[in-house]
Structure formats: structure tokens, C-alpha cells
Amino acid sequence: MDLKSLKQFQHLASTLHFSKTSEAMFVSPPTLTRSIMRLEEECGAQLFVRNNRNVALTKAGKKLLAFAETTLANFHQLQLDIGHQKDVLSGELAIFCSVTAAQTYLPNVLDSMRAEYPSVDIKLDTGDHAIALAKITTLEANRADAAIAIHTPDFPSNIHFQAIDSVPLTLIVPAQMDVSVVEDIEWNKTDVIMPARGPSKRIVNHWFAEHNIRPRVYAQVSGNEAIVSMVALGLGIGFVPRIVLKNSTAKDKVLSISVGDIESYKLGLCYLKERANEALIQALASLFSVRS
Length: 292
Description:
The protein is an alpha/beta fold.
């Protein structure tokens, strides 16, 4: 008993007219008749009472009609379920960002991703902001599909930047240092912990140049978290994003001094423009849009 024959039988049971059903089902009247006869053979009973003027369902025909309606409805639901499964996103999505960005921006986004797209596996890699863009442009196996990165004046034209936050920088000094405003700093007598690379290096160097200050560099380090740790140890002072300080375990060992004229970070979700139409990328970007 095949579904095609059941569909023809169901239609004929509603019209009780062989010509109308054969026309609607795109089969010839003889073909429809043979199909009904096969069903009668399979059921071992007559399904219709036919004469020159009327067609009517028998008791067996009414029972088969109930079976046909249930079977065809169940099959239609199965098709919908399978079609839905085809549309469900799946696969792996690799995201790179700093530890601080992961703590600040990802929890709600990843919770939503797990709820809406449970078949998507998230692979999170953390590290220095300075290598974020390299992570999404590299061809190596450990590449990222998307990254949270800082916008810069020389931002690559092949990378899409979706802004998610503007992050101010703050000057931090050891807690025991007797200063409360930036004007109290004696720069020629104070060691400075400088960023070794990345966008923060440009911003901090630009601020020093604008104020005609030649910093007495004690060390250049990679990562804002490392700057906080070194300042907490009393090895110097330095500039870090406020969100880094907020999430640092050493924040109680330093003082934050506001500097109003230093450039803020423009932080955003980044991915290659050529991948913008990929379903996983679009899903992630959409969730960040809701968040912002």
C-alpha cells in the first residue's frame, strides 16, 4: 500500500467522482480505477459501491479512509519535521577574543547561541587583542571564524567590523602611590609599563606625544592584564582599558586615575567580508546586534 494510492483514494472518497479525481490527481480514469482495485485487493474488501449513476463508500472504505487520513497527516508532519531539521544550524564556530572580552561580552551571547542553535559547537580561544585580526585572516588550522577586536585607523578593508562597545582607557598606579589626578604624575621620575604591541600601543604613544612626554619605560609587555599585574607589584604605572581593570583580580592593589583626553577603544565583532553570508556568521552577528 503506497502513499500515492492512499492520496488518490482519499481524494476519491471526498469527490465520489472518478473523473474529477483523475483530473485533479493527474492520472487517467483507467489508472485511477486500477489503483483503487489494488487497494481493494490489499484490504480484501470492496471500498466503493459503484453503479452507472453513483459512487459510495462501503463500511470497509470508511475504515480505510480514517486510516488514510491519519497516515497522510502523519507523513506530512514527518516531512515538516525533517525539513525543519535541514534548516537547523549545525557545525563548529570558532571565536577569538581576550579573556576580558570573553568575560564581558560573551556570556549572554553564548547562552542565546546555545538556546537558539543547540547543534552549533562553540570553540572559544582567548589571547592578546593584538593578534585578533590575524586569527581570522590566517589559513592555519587554528584560525577563528570571528573575533572581538579593536578598530584602528589602518583597519583591513577585507574585514567587517560590527561595533559592540566604546571602551575608555584609564591610568593605573600602585595603590601606595600618593597621586589622585594625572597632573600629579612626575613623568621624568616615574617608570611606565608600556604595551608591547597592538592598538593600545598606538593610543598610548599618541597620548604621550600630544602631551610632549617622553615616558621612562620600565618594560613593554603583551596583554593589558599583564600591565595591571605589574602595576599592582609597584613596578610602574600604565594605561589599560577600564573593562580590563574591572575584571582584574589585582584591581584592589591599584588606583585608577581618569584621563579625559585619551582615545577610547572601538571594540567590535570582526569577520572576513567574504564570509558575511555564511549562516553561522550571520547568526552570531545577529545575536551581537541584539546585545548592543
